[in-house]
Design brief:
This protein is mostly helical and about 60 residues long. It has two helices and no strands. Helix 1 (about 5-25) packs antiparallel against helix 2 (about 30-55). The longest helix has 29 residues, at about 30-55. The radius of gyration is 14 Å and the shape is elongated. It starts with a helix and ends with a helix.
Length: about 60
């Protein structure tokens, strides 16, 4: 099922974001906002880092 690396990244980011949101937020609005922001930072940051590694490898 998880042969696609991008899908693995998104699933992992979701699980980590849910874990930290459970630890830090009591209200529903803050919870989902935290999940969205954490997922966005993890996915975008990982893709930028991967592009940087590709760019510097040449």
């Amino acid at each position: 099922m998880l042969n696609d690396h991008f899908l693995s990244l998104v699933v992992f980011s979701l699980l980590v974001a849910l874990f930290f949101a459970v630890l830090n937020h009591r209200d529903s609005r803050g919870f989902w906002k935290s999940v969205g922001k954490t997922m966005a930072w993890m996915v975008v940051g990982s893709l930028l880092f991967a592009y940087f590694m590709l760019w510097t490898a040449r």
